[in-house]
Design goal:
Elements: H1 16-29, E1 32-37, E2 47-52, H2 53-70, E3 75-77, E4 87-89, H3 93-105, H4 108-122, H5 128-144, H6 146-149, H7 154-168, H8 177-190, H9 195-202, H10 207-211
Antiparallel strand pairs: 1-2, 3-4
Helix pairs in contact: 1-2, 3-4, 4-5, 5-8
């Protein structure tokens, strides 16, 4: 954790970040013994050997999440994904199952990108910029799979976007399904992608039409005058 004087443990000195950081650190250190030898000393609970890290972490996640749930804590240890063992925002069981189904049903490369976006969005120290990046990354995947969207009514997609942005508490709304497309184009433009490369992804036939999707909020952002060296 990069902090001094944490040992011996003194909970009365912990702040919230230290408490959560220790939960994650213990997850990485825990292991469950497979064998236990008896000991004649009654003060000894036994001598353990052949430790299983995977089993120990599985039990640890289950027990810690049970305690966090009992205390109405907003975080849980992730049980799947690239952020497994890290504390993430708790969601209801239905949304948790939805995440699992999406990542398991998708192709390997798509599942990896979805897992990364989910991890970016739900981690305990996430910022609004991180959440925007996650939404934009998912929008890119949706653009690749536009054929699947034809079976959805536009209002259904809007409802999903409204629910996601409300939970993320994003400023500058309201947002709609169209915001995903504009956000992807804007973010790609600001990151230096060419108009032709963006159009290839969004399937725009006209670069002039594509330009209308670039939504720059401030006059000095992406302004040529800032590059004159004056």
């Amino acid at each position: 954790m990069g902090r001094r004087d944490l040992w011996p443990l003194k909970p009365q000195r912990w702040d919230e970040d230290t408490f959560y950081g220790l939960i994650e650190a213990f997850h990485d250190l825990v292991a469950r013994p497979r064998l236990s030898d008896g000991c004649p000393d009654r003060r000894c609970i036994g001598h353990f050997s052949q430790f299983s890290t995977e089993t120990g972490r599985l039990i640890y996640r289950w027990q810690v999440n049970h305690l966090l749930s009992s205390a109405d804590d907003p975080f849980r240890l992730a049980i799947t994904g690239e952020d497994m063992g890290r504390l993430v925002r708790a969601v209801d069981e239905a949304r948790g199952d939805l995440v699992d189904r999406v990542t398991h049903a998708a192709a390997e490369d798509v599942a990896r990108r979805v897992e990364h976006a989910i991890s970016l969005f739900r981690r305990r120290d996430t910022t609004e910029h991180d959440k925007r990046s996650a939404v934009i990354a998912l929008a890119g995947i949706l653009e690749e799979r536009r054929a699947l969207e034809r079976g959805l009514h536009p209002e259904s997609i809007n409802d999903l976007v409204h629910a996601a942005t409300a939970r993320a508490e994003l400023a500058g709304g309201p947002y709609s399904a169209h915001s995903l497309r504009a956000g992807f184009v804007t973010y790609s433009h600001l990151r230096g992608a060419s108009g032709r490369a963006i159009a290839h992804q969004t399937r725009h036939r006209s670069l002039a039409t594509l330009g209308a999707y670039v939504r720059v909020e401030t006059a000095w952002e992406d302004n040529a005058a800032t590059q004159l060296g004056l």
